[in-house]
Amino acid sequence: MQLVRNLPQQYREDPWVLALADAILGVLEDQDAQSVSIREQLSLDTITWALEIEEALAGIVPPADATLENRRSTLKAKLRSSGKVTIELIQAVCDAWKNGEVVVSFTGGKIRLQFVGAYGVPVDLDALKAAVRLVIPAHLAAEYAIKYLLIRDIHEVMTISTLETQPLGIFAF
């Protein structure tokens, strides 16, 4: 025990001093564990027990079935959504969603959100739409382009065995 080794020689074997050092060590270890836990609450990627507090401060009421990851994404989007509305701001809100991989653009008088990551409907798309709707001006429409597998992506590219392992939700019909 480092604490006892720093004491004068005559105290290192004293039972009362050793008991006191053990008690102090227990307190210090507990404080160290709490310090690690508190540091985790400072990042939106690792927040756990303080998430409820941060959601309340941001005015967010999460759905009962929301996962920890979805709640973190919603909070991250809410915190990123203040300021002048620009394509960059909308992009920052979209980037808060894990696996969202969205490219935001403004074409034809509409805000276009094109999913460029995984094929199929992204996880928690409704929450992303709600966050975007809170940010964009009411008079602008939002258009969502979801990436699906097309015939050109599979014809003479994938084998039948590979094709059979793909979920139906990633194909365009």
Structural key phrases:
173 residues, mainly alpha, three-stranded mixed β-sheet, 8 helices, elongated
Describe the protein.
- This protein is mainly alpha-helical and 173 residues long.
- It has eight helices and three strands.
- It has helices at residues 2-5, 15-40, 51-58, 68-80, 87-95, 125-135, 151-154, 160-164, and strands spanning 102-107, 110-115, 141-145.
- The protein has a three-stranded mixed sheet with strand order 1-2-3.
- α6 links the parallel β2 and β3 (141-145).
- α4 runs antiparallel to α5.
- The longest helix has 26 residues, at 15-40.
- The protein is elongated, with a radius of gyration of 26 Å.
- The mean pLDDT is 86.
Per-chain topology:
Blueprint: H1 2-5, H2 15-40, H3 51-58, H4 68-80, H5 87-95, E1 102-107, E2 110-115, H6 125-135, E3 141-145, H7 151-154, H8 160-164
Parallel strand pairs: 2-3
Antiparallel strand pairs: 1-2
